[in-house]
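Our preliminary data section would be incomplete without showing what the modeling component actually yields. Below, a chain of 400 amino acids is followed by its predicted structure, encoded as tokens that our downstream tools consume directly.
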Amino acid sequence: MSALKFFTAIIFILSLLVAPAQAAQKKILINSASRLMLFYDGDVKVAVYHLGLGKVSTPTPTGYFQITEKAVNPSWIDPSDPEYEIPSGPDNPLGYRWMQIWGNYGIHGTNRPESIGNYVSNGCIRMNERDVEELFDAVEVGTPVEITYNRIVVEKTPEGDVVYYIYPDGYGWQEINISDVKKWIEPFGVLAFESDYDISQKIEASDGEPTFIGKPYNVEINGELTQPTDANNTRFFAKAVLREGITYMPVVPIAKILRLKLEWNKAESTLKSKFGKVICYERKDQLYCNADDVPILFNIEGGLQSSADGGKIFRFKSLPVIDKPTKPDKPKPDKPKPETTKPDDKSQPEDTKPDDKPQPEETKPDDKPQPEETKPDDKPQPEEIKDADNKIESGEAASA
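Predicted structure:
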């Protein structure tokens, strides 16, 4: 085999391997509650299309499908009368493009553009002609199609804002409450900024209009991402949230990484650490501080930076702890004071009273000092007096 033929064969084989991979990256997501189609190429949302779907009596099925057939200028055959057929043209209810997904169900154009956005078909997915032709050219046989029925939709905009929608229950398949909506919002880290009352009003309206909550950011402290933290019977969210010009920082998860104790004063709305005290914001049992106050509370530095995936992240690192110099104590003059004296007492020697004068040990005020073991009238005697004394003590010399 020549080198040219060998090279051509390699290119052909590689094309066979790459083509299915490219097809698998594309996907179609249809939400029958919103009557919208999202077309993705990989993780990128390429387009959003409005749809006309099955009537309540003949609803569009839900499940996982794929495009099994594509046709240009299809003919329409009446499902109830196979003998009745309408060729391609302005009277054809399929329009000029058809993509089969399962049995008689498919994605197609329409000659009734006013029906788009309503429940009108026998179960097929109708699109505006311009939209269906655009999609037809972008997908291949084998492209997956997922059809769901979700009245609650929460997503991030290309700018990073979290937005949610509540759609009407067109098929009567899905009753929802506040708890259901909160479960959808919580993983995005912004639930603290949407009150239960606001959610209840949103459910009541069920108008499919967007409600913007805030823009969440991951937070990294000394190379470690903050995580949801359980404390005081509360689960504290881990993301910073930008809302109405203020960036709210999640103080409890940050304190956990830094192993720092915080004191929360609810009456003053303040948080205190060993480094400083700042204003705190309490939202639905969550505690946040302004991003500008983070260095004061945690002794860290940093800010909003680019992340590896092209997004944004708050990165901080700890600063060295500098001990504040202490002022030396001024020497105080010693003033001896008895331990048991009162403010009005004058300083006296220990174990004396105010009017007592110092006396020799073992004497009374009127006694005169006397030699040890003698009596007032005794005269000094020679050394032998000891024996006489001993006798006196024993009572044997009464006549002496």
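The two ends are 158 Å apart (CA to CA). Residues 3-25 form the longest helix (23 residues). Preliminary results of this kind motivate Aim 1 of the renewal.
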